[in-house]
From TrEMBL:
Native organism: Pestalotiopsis fici (strain W106-1 / CGMCC3.15140)
Family: Belongs to the HGH1 family.
The name this protein goes by in its record: Protein HGH1 homolog
Domain Protein HGH1 N-terminal residue range list: 94-278
TM stretches of this protein: none
Domain Protein HGH1 C-terminal: 283-337
Molecular function, one GO term: translation elongation factor binding
Amino acid sequence: MPTELEELVGFIANPNPQIRLLATENLVPYSTSQPSIFKVDNSQPVKNLKLLVKDHPKIAEHVITILINLSADREVLESLATDDQFLTTILGFITNPKEPNANLLSMLLANLAKFDGFKSVLQKKLPAPTELGSNDLVLNQLLDLFVKGAEGTYNKEADFDHLSYLFADLTKHAEIRHHFLQKQEYDGVIPLSKLKVFTEHKSDVRRKGVASTIKNVAFEVSAHPSFMDEDELNLLPYIILPIIGNEEYDLDESMAMLPDLQLLPPDKARDSDPNIIQTHVETLMLLSSTREGRDRLREVKVYPIIRETHSRVSDDDVKDACERLVNVLMRDEEGEESGPRIEEIAQENVAIPIEDDDDDDEIVEV
C-alpha cells in the first residue's frame, strides 16, 4: 500500500489544477529531503513533472523548483538533460520576455550543464524572439539573454544571473570555449567580450560565474594575446579590477599599470568574495603560462597588485594563489623554455565551484 507521501506524489498528475497546485507546493521540501519518492514506478513522477513545466505559472514554479533540486541525482539529471522535447520547451520559455519563472529556469539550466552531454544541446537552433535580437543558435540566445536581461531589463521578473554558472560549466569543454572566442556573424561580437563588463557587478552569483567562465576560456593558450591586447578582447583590466583595492602604489608602479587601474577612487574596494579573487588570480596564473604572457604581466605591474592582495586578504586559498603567481612572475627566465605550460600551472579542475565548495558536481538547490 502506498504511503501518504507516495499518494501525494501521485496527485501531481491529477486533472484538477487546484489539487496539482497543492501537491506540487507541498512536495517542494521533499525534493531535497526525500528525493527517492519521485523515482517510484520507473521515475513516473519525474516524467509527469517534465510535462507540468507547461502548466499554470504558479504550478510550474513549484515544478521547476522540484526539478532543480532533483537534478542533484545523476539519474534524474541525465533524464532531464537528454530529453530533447523537454529542453526545447524550457529553452522556449526562458527567452520569452514575459516568462514569470525565467530565473528558476536559469537555475535549472545551470544544473543541467553538469551533464557532459548537455554541451551538444546548446548548439541546437531555435527561433529567437524579436525582442532578444539574437540569432537562432541557442547558446547565443542565452548569452544575449544574460547580457540584455541583467537587472530586469528584458524580463521584469528575472535577472538571469544563474546563466553565468551555465556558461562556466559549459566552458569546461573545448568546443564551447572556441565558440566563446569566435566573432559571431549576426552581431560582429566575440561572445566572451560580452561577459567581461560583469566582473564588478553587484550580484555575487553573476560575478562568480563570469569569473569562472573567463578562467575556463583562458585554458585556450592561443587566445592569450587577445586577452591582453587592448585592441582585441582586452580582458586584463576586467580581471585585475576586482582584485585591486584602495591601496596606494609608488608612482613608477602606478604609472606603468593599465590605464583603467590608474586614478581609482579612494573608496575602491576589492571583491568581497575571496573565491572570486582566487579565481581571477588563477586566471592571471594561466596567462603567465607563456613567456609573452609573463612579460606582459610584469610590464603592467601585476606583481605589486598581487603583493598587496596577499597582504590584505586573509583567506588561505587566496594567499596560496598569490604566492604561486608571484613565484612565476619573479623568477629568473634565463635558460627556461618558452611556450605553453598549462599542464604544470593548472592542476585544478576547470569547472566552476558552485557556492563555496570546490566540488564541481555541486548542484544549485532552492
